[in-house]
């Protein structure tokens, strides 16, 4: 007999005790502990970031010189913090160029605040205080669409270093297994397009997927884009859930895409 669904399991309790917005944080934490994906100073794009536990985890790892840009249809339930920005939008309507612009603005603001603080501290003859740049929240109402779109690699866009694109996006479940899997893979495939367009050669990609008949085709897509590919089903995944995570590392070269060396900042 299947075990009953326990909403408030030990991961739920632990997330609450540690003030994380959701138990999902332990899935990312396990993936990171096993593969060592993220580091201090990283710039990370977090797709489907609400209520915000991955964002909390990633901003702690990235630290004050890192930056995490999160997107979701839903609002966050936690404050994004000074080294994060949140946009309440349908990611299917946000192009890689716009995401790069979002990051560019955040990085420029971060640098400006650091320079201002340093100048002020020098003037007052004391050490500069920690990062205080305000987090930006933008709301753009937009309809959710589930179709994945092909993403171009515009060579002309202003580039900043991006170390990782992570996606915990999940569609609203209809209960129709094949349809739900197709919509989940549509979102993962869209995230892969964003990762291919934006991360540098040493960049990584994490995406939630649902098991099902089209997963192999998606894995082939990820293997076409990244040199190392793994699938992990973290311990915090609920029993009976069909989700797992695909991780890609080291982006394969893409014709027409500038390399890290061209990134301006
Ligand atoms: C499992 S939750 C993410 C949990 C999050 N990683 C955390 O740790 O708090 C999945 C999220 O994907 C978001 N999502 C689904 N489709 C989306 C889309 N097209 N654009 C942006 N977010 C989307 C949902 O709104 C939902 O908040």
Structure commentary:
With 265 residues, the protein is α/β, with parallel strands linked by helices. The chain has one domain: Rossmann fold. The protein has 6 helices and 8 strands. It has helices at residues 10-17, 25-35, 53-62, 96-124, 177-198, 215-225, and strands at 43-47, 67-72, 84-88, 137-139, 164-167, 204-210, 226-232, 243-251. It has an 8-stranded mixed β-sheet, with helices on both faces. α5 (177-198) packs parallel to α6. The longest helix has 29 residues, at 96-124. Mean pLDDT is 87; it is low at 139-152. S-adenosylmethionine binds at residues 21-22, 24-25, 48-54, 71-74, 90-92, 144, 168-171, 187. S-adenosylmethionine binds next to α3 and β2.
For the largest beta-sheet, the strand count, sense and barrel status come to: 8 strands, mixed
Q: Indicate the low-confidence ranges by residue numbers.
A: 139-152
Order of helices and strands: HHEHEEHEEHEHEE
- What is the helical fraction, as a range of percent? 25-40%
Main sheet strand line-up: 4-3-2-1-5-6-8-7
Shape: globular
Task: Give a quick rundown of the structure.
The chain is 34% helix and 17% strand. The protein has 265 residues and is an alpha/beta fold. It has a single domain (21-106, 134-148, 157-254), classed as Rossmann fold.
């Amino acid at each position: 007999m299947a075990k009953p669904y326990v909403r408030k399991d030990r991961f739920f309790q632990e997330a609450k005790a540690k003030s994380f917005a959701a138990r999902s944080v332990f899935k990312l934490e396990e993936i990171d502990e096993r593969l060592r994906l993220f580091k201090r100073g990283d710039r990370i794009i977090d797709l489907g970031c609400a209520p915000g536990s991955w964002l909390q985890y990633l901003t702690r790892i990235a630290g004050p010189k890192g930056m995490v840009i999160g997107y979701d249809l839903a609002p966050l339930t936690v404050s994004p913090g000074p080294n994060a920005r949140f946009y309440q939008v349908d990611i299917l309507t946000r192009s890689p160029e716009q995401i790069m612009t979002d990051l560019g603005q955040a990085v420029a603001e971060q640098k400006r605040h650091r320079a201002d603080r340093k100048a002020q501290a020098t003037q007052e003859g004391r050490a500069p205080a920690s990062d205080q740049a305000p987090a930006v929240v933008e709301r753009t109402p937009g309809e959710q669409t589930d179709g994945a779109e092909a993403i171009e690699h515009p060579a002309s866009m202003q580039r900043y270093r991006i170390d990782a694109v992570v996606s915990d996006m999940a569609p609203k479940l209809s209960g129709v297994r094949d349809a739900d899997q197709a919509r989940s893979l549509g979102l993962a495939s869209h995230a892969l397009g964003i990762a291919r367009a934006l991360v540098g050669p040493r960049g990584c990609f994490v995406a939630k997927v649902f098991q099902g008949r089209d997963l192999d085709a998606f894995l082939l897509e990820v293997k076409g884009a990244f040199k190392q590919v793994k699938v992990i089903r973290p311990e915090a995944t609920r029993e009976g859930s069909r989700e797992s995570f695909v991780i890609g590392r080291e982006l394969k070269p893409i014709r027409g895409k500038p390399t890290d060396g061209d990134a301006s900042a």
